[in-house]
């Protein structure tokens, strides 16, 4: 690179040529090299990612799309039998699919809404000047470091019907025991609580960061205007956090749509069914059950692609809302 | 609402300002009380994991459940360690998570930079593709992915877990979003005008700016790779496991021993917890610095 | 502006970081290739052969010291076992590995609920062990041998254990409920019909010690009953009969009766609350295959000593059991076949029984003293050898079908719990189970 240091006339924009060794003024060769570099480097930058992506992301995606149009069984995945849109048509008339879709939505709301609201509240509290500020932040973040497997293991024990700690406490408080696995809503709440537990602290920190970026003068002037603290929170903090809130909503929604590990492990043996009445079977579990327990890979792939399309729709809706918000802002 | 409205000048107002929500305000007892409550909620399940791991099976079965530590912790940790091949598992997981974190950060930063600041054909299409990939449910790709890995002869080898995990659409998107705002376009152009090659631009302009986000992304990828279990369980076996794979084989033996299973879960979580305790300030700071632009 | 490249330290650190990343990636790739090549060069060559065995749950071979002994008998062979705790995680992995022809162990275990499907769909990917040296077909129970045999007569797995059923019961609770406690007398209470078991349950319930119920779960009762019939979910011609086979109908009615009469503890077997119920002595009986004895002992702990005993079940039935097969893609095929044959030979199966694993699928083992004279001290010194081998001999020739595992769980994991744990009407539970099966069967 340092080979040609000769300064040559007619360098484009003629700037700073040879100001430092290694950044020699472009000669004809150099300048061609330079142009080539400008034109091609973007591709070089995205190439590593997209190469891997092609092998480990795109190929599986297209393969499953192709497989979703076939009858394929896990017992012999090599044997494919063209089925057209049969797998998709079957989904539309399948109660289990709609049940899973509804559950995914319900559990998604149950886990996302309290999680983000609590995170917002916590961020507000963390925003005060606190003693041992780092301690509070780290402590609230620890659940995030716990794996789904480890977390669910503990929660299953805590939520045990006959000998669990939660029911023991409820009993002590005079409230009858709850069947956390077999109740329709109690099981959904229990699954959601695992998600909420793991992610609230993390989101609180993201909100806190956004809050700290809000200029103090805004609060000062509002305070001088006599706005109450609550009013300040509603009229300064929340609007300033809008993009961040939107971001967390999008990420949580994606997570909620793909919810899998928590309900699977919460259900114990046969967890893929999401309870005896499929009361907490999410789309992710339904896919898993179809593909890995009933061995209908083709149909599982159709579920996956349907999930994918649903998420694209949600993302498009989110994008529209974001644009609307930006215009208003 | 007009936050930037004119400042009131009357002396009276200055004398009795309404309380401010800014960071200057000290937290009152109520603030501490609520925080304590949530902190307890965050920590208790983990503490109880340790409590359960320090008991034996019989005690775990009785009501009321044990609320304080028993004497079997070391013994249970010991059997979890040997039963589940935990030493190798921890080593493997560290290696895998480390490589995933480094690789993801590397790929995502350069690709994110290109997608954020450089003009080239297919940029929008590639960006959309990346965002679209985030929506793909991970359970979906397992079968074709396994076929690829098998074709390459990688089953039961760590790269079968590392390489597919490197494809983090979230990482690329995250870095792109960060760089769009954090990296002034003029900075890139100025370096260009200076005649710097693209790699030099990345090296000297982009990387320094991207550092906080890189740190966050690295941390996020590390934690995620550490805790990932769906794909590793399929790609690896107990012969060469990661921690989460090792845990699926734990508690076997004639009778699943709940206390040992909990001890295993604790062993698998402990390294991350330790890191969070030691580097808590940096990790929290990193998340917050990287998140602002999110 | 000041270009950032003047900041040396960062540059150096970043360079280091990147170099390290690249290095690690390259090394790992090379390592992979090297290992791959190494394996390819190895078969049978100089030095040691490592035979790998992939299993689910516990086979007990290791615990019984069989691997150790085999390694002693065959210097140069090392055995390594890779275990996945649950078959529902193990089996799909086995299918994917078979399809890809990669990642397979030299010997793979298969559960009785899956063997039919493997034989039908992937049978040609396994070595025909029926022709292996040292295998004598007549050593095995005929129905066990038939289960692992494909239509064209190839035997893809050798039977390991079987699961004849007995009933484990608590003498102390029976005494307090005014029932006989002697195992012969208890067996006579319900001999011949599970309906009489239910009747005993009603008698128990009338005088039940506080806080206890008769049995653990309706699903356990269902399984114990249904597996005593030759045709359960498929008939001999291979047609699905889950909707009206006498086996399913009768067993379902028994389960519903047990729920209605409040005989069950409303537990799911092999879940933590079930374990805890043992420790707390919540129920008086449980239908138990031999491998469950160790479980009960461990979970009931010292508190249950001298309280449990084993009686003959109302009808002979087989619940569970496994096979081991050698995939054609096995790396050390010859060594694997030899080991598989040795592990399933009558003498070795007898030793496994001694260690409280399953009952041998080879009747030749039954006369061996380890089996014939086996007693279990924890269970009141019950002659478990005699009880279980007698049951084993009377098990009917069972008919199997490809989706029977899914059909079974539709009843035990959906239909019955809906009635037992969620309090739905029996008819709703039945319909749910049927719908579940229709959804699972139809690709």
Kindly summarize this structure in a few lines.
The complex is a heterotrimer of chains A (329), B (294) and C (443). Chain A is an all-alpha fold. Chain A is built from twelve helices and two strands; from the N terminus they run αββααααααααααα.
Distance between the termini of chain B: 25 Å
The CATH superfamily of the largest domain in chain C turns out to be Periplasmic binding protein-like II
**Share of residues in strands of chain C:** 5-15%
**Proper CATH architecture of the largest domain in chain C:** 3-Layer(aba) Sandwich
- What's the tally of helices of chain B? 15
What is the β-strand count of chain C? 10
Beta-strand percentage of chain B? under 5%
Largest interface: A-B, 128 and 116 residues
InterPro entries (chain C): Bact_solute-bd_prot1, SBP
Protein name (chain C): Sugar-binding protein
Organism (chain C): Streptomyces cinnamoneus
InterPro entries (chain A): ABC_transporter_permease, MetI-like, MetI-like_sf
Describe this structure in words.
Chain B: It is a multi-pass membrane protein. Chain B: Keywords: Cell membrane, Membrane, Transmembrane, Transmembrane helix, Transport. Chain B: InterPro entries: MetI-like, MetI-like_sf. Chain B: One of its GO terms (biological process) is transmembrane transport. The complex is a heterotrimer of chains A (329), B (294) and C (443). Chain A has 329 residues and is mainly alpha-helical. Chain A contains 12 helices and 2 strands; from the N terminus they run H-E-E-H-H-H-H-H-H-H-H-H-H-H. Chain A has a single domain, classed as MetI-like fold. Chain A has helices at residues 28-67, 86-92, 95-126, 133-145, 148-158, 165-172, 184-212, 216-224, 229-257, 261-266, 283-293, 297-328; strands at 70-71, 81-82. In chain A, helix 7 (184-212) crosses helix 9 (229-257) and helix 9 (229-257) runs antiparallel to helix 12 (297-328). The relative contact order of chain B is 0.14. Residues 1-18 of chain B have low confidence and may be disordered. Chain C has 18 helices and 10 strands. In chain C, the strands form 2 sheets. In chain C, strands 2-1-3-9-4-10 form a 6-stranded mixed beta sheet, with helices on both faces. In chain C, helix 2 (66-73) links the parallel strand 1 and strand 2 (77-84). At the B-C interface, helix 3, helix 5, helix 7, helix 10 and helix 11 of B face helix 1, strand 2, helix 3, helix 11 and helix 12 of C.
